[in-house]
């Protein structure tokens, strides 16, 4: 299995191809590639992203069958089943890079902001469980600040939510903590821009990367 740093470089390269319209999807998503993976998989990165239809991890990183172990949930939140999914891939396949990827204009973050600003309330108990997980980091962001430009607020809220998920993965699992300390597992935060297609890695990225 490749190292976290190499995996990160591979994702950066893939995103660069995607942004410059040089995607290699026609060679990485073929039937031959699918058939070649029947005996097993070795995904080089785990991506926890949002369910938003505009943010498909494989496409924005220009990857194909067998490359990424992807968990998608509205607001890229971390609940026990997401931690379990990351644990599974890290332990089973030896994958050493975990990316939490938020994105601009995230509906789950926007809904949480609206609620914290007193403009709406979420009725569904199930939907509430998502908003409640986004809430703490966004709440902290709002406290102690004066009136903020709505766009700047949204931008900061998306990143605060990503950081919260990254932290949860780093410290919410003994198994993952052990792999981080002793086996080179890296958990990083990233933001995808709907406007440009660029993924910016901003949390936990090694200096050299
Ligand atoms: Zn979203």
Describe the structure.
- The protein contains nine helices and five strands.
- Strand 4 (about 185-190) and strand 5 form a beta hairpin.
- It has helices spanning about 5-20, 25-30, 30-35, 55-60, 80-95, 105-115, 125-140, 150-170, 175-185; strands at about 45-50, 70, 95-105, 185-190, 200-205.
- The mean pLDDT is about 95.
- Strands 2-1-3-4-5 form a five-stranded mixed β-sheet.
- The chain has about 210 residues and is an alpha/beta fold.
- It is globular.
- It is about 50% helix and about 15% strand.
- The chain binds zinc ion.
- Zinc ion binds near residues 75, 103, 106, 107 and 108.
List its traits.
209 residues, binds zinc ion, alpha/beta, 50% helix, 5-stranded mixed sheet
Helix content: 40-55%
Q: How is the quaternary structure best described?
A: single chain
Largest sheet: 5 strands, mixed
What amount of the residues lies in strands? 5-15%
The coarse overall form would be globular
Structural class: alpha/beta
H/E series, N to C?
A: HHHEHEHEHHHHEE
How is the largest sheet built, in terms of strand order?
2-1-3-4-5
SSE blueprint and pairings:
Blueprint: H1 4-19, H2 25-28, H3 31-36, E1 45-49, H4 57-60, E2 68-72, H5 80-93, E3 97-103, H6 107-116, H7 125-142, H8 150-171, H9 174-183, E4 186-192, E5 199-203
Parallel strand pairs: 1-2, 1-3, 3-4
Antiparallel strand pairs: 4-5
The protein binds zinc ion.
Residues 50, 52, 75, 103, 106-108 line the site of zinc ion (ZN).
What's a concise summary of this model?
With 209 residues, this protein is α/β, with parallel strands linked by helices.
């Amino acid at each position: 299995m490749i190292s976290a740093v190499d995996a990160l470089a591979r994702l950066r390269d893939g995103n660069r191809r995607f942004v410059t319209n040089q995607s290699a999807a026609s060679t990485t998503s073929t039937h031959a590639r699918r058939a070649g993976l029947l005996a097993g998989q070795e995904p080089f990165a785990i991506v926890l992203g949002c369910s938003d239809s505009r943010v498909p991890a494989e496409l924005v990183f220009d990857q194909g069958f067998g490359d990424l172990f992807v968990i998608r949930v509205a607001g890229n939140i971390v609940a026990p089943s997401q931690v379990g999914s990351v644990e599974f891939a890290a332990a089973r396949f030896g994958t050493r890079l975990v990316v939490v990827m938020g994105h601009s204009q995230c509906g789950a973050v926007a809904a949480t902001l609206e609620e914290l600003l007193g403009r709406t309330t979420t009725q569904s108990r199930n939907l509430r469980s998502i908003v409640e997980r986004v809430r703490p980091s966004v709440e902290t962001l709002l406290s102690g600040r004066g009136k903020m430009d709505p766009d700047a607020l949204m931008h900061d809220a998306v990143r605060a939510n990503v950081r919260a998920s990254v932290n949860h993965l780093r410290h919410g699992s003994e198994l993952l903590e052990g792999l981080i300390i002793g086996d080179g597992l890296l958990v990083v935060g990233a933001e995808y821009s709907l406007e440009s297609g660029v993924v910016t890695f901003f949390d936990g990225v090694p200096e050299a990367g």
